[in-house]
């Protein structure tokens, strides 16, 4: 189980590293709503085919339906806001701001899941991480007004993402990752189509650039189908705060990817913030292992 969890953890980190840039590219030449709707529809199609091949059923009891709703809040609410915000901020910043998730998750998990995740050592690590993130996205204030709105949008999306993760853990329906994501998409995809019809009148774009098409396909097949399945597999087998620590690893990799592939700025502030985040990760791991050795 430990090896499977480690591989799943690495997989999610790699998918989340590439997802922000793919989100930005998936809306080139088309509306952000179309990009999001096409991605989620592709993902749902892949997951339903996978369920058929594996001959799995979706449980429809009360706990299962509540869990699907909790997942749908993340898949629809958090992701739609992220797609809107991606129009105005560099792709690397999406991952950077999502790095605040452990801080939000820690307090919610302590309050609602009774997880012992808020010792002084961890609080210090979270504070360092938040400080690093503040340094990194403070440069967004130097951009235009829409960039600032984009930052606020991603912050809201991050809070929804963290709340959804804690709610899934709280319900504890013991569903497989495949069932979780499929059930969540069955609720969220109709909402995406309604939003697309409301904002874009449901009109298909006349032409879709190749880069956009490939990005949508990657997001639908890999990021949604594989990425979310691995994420919820990890979420079911780890403390919520340990899961959220992935959000302090992916900013560094996403920023480097955006800089090297999409020519996004990498400033002194960004490097300083990255250093603070790495320190936060190191302190968190040391404190976490010490707590585990002492029996939590």
Automatic annotation (TrEMBL):
<feature type="transmembrane region" description="Helical">
    <location>
        <begin position="180"/>
        <end position="199"/>
    </location>
</feature>
<dbReference type="InterPro" id="IPR037185">
    <property type="entry name" value="EmrE-like"/>
</dbReference>
<keyword id="KW-0812">Transmembrane</keyword>
<feature type="transmembrane region" description="Helical">
    <location>
        <begin position="147"/>
        <end position="168"/>
    </location>
</feature>
<protein>
    <submittedName>
        <fullName>Drug/metabolite transporter (DMT)-like permease</fullName>
    </submittedName>
</protein>
<dbReference type="InterPro" id="IPR000620">
    <property type="entry name" value="EamA_dom"/>
</dbReference>
<feature type="transmembrane region" description="Helical">
    <location>
        <begin position="240"/>
        <end position="260"/>
    </location>
</feature>
<feature type="domain" description="EamA">
    <location>
        <begin position="150"/>
        <end position="283"/>
    </location>
</feature>
<keyword id="KW-0472">Membrane</keyword>
<dbReference type="Pfam" id="PF00892">
    <property type="entry name" value="EamA"/>
</dbReference>
<keyword id="KW-1133">Transmembrane helix</keyword>
<feature type="transmembrane region" description="Helical">
    <location>
        <begin position="92"/>
        <end position="111"/>
    </location>
</feature>
<comment type="similarity">
    <text>Belongs to the EamA transporter family.</text>
</comment>
<feature type="transmembrane region" description="Helical">
    <location>
        <begin position="211"/>
        <end position="233"/>
    </location>
</feature>
<feature type="domain" description="EamA">
    <location>
        <begin position="7"/>
        <end position="137"/>
    </location>
</feature>
<dbReference type="InterPro" id="IPR050638">
    <property type="entry name" value="AA-Vitamin_Transporters"/>
</dbReference>
<feature type="transmembrane region" description="Helical">
    <location>
        <begin position="123"/>
        <end position="141"/>
    </location>
</feature>
<feature type="transmembrane region" description="Helical">
    <location>
        <begin position="32"/>
        <end position="53"/>
    </location>
</feature>
<feature type="transmembrane region" description="Helical">
    <location>
        <begin position="266"/>
        <end position="287"/>
    </location>
</feature>
<feature type="transmembrane region" description="Helical">
    <location>
        <begin position="65"/>
        <end position="86"/>
    </location>
</feature>
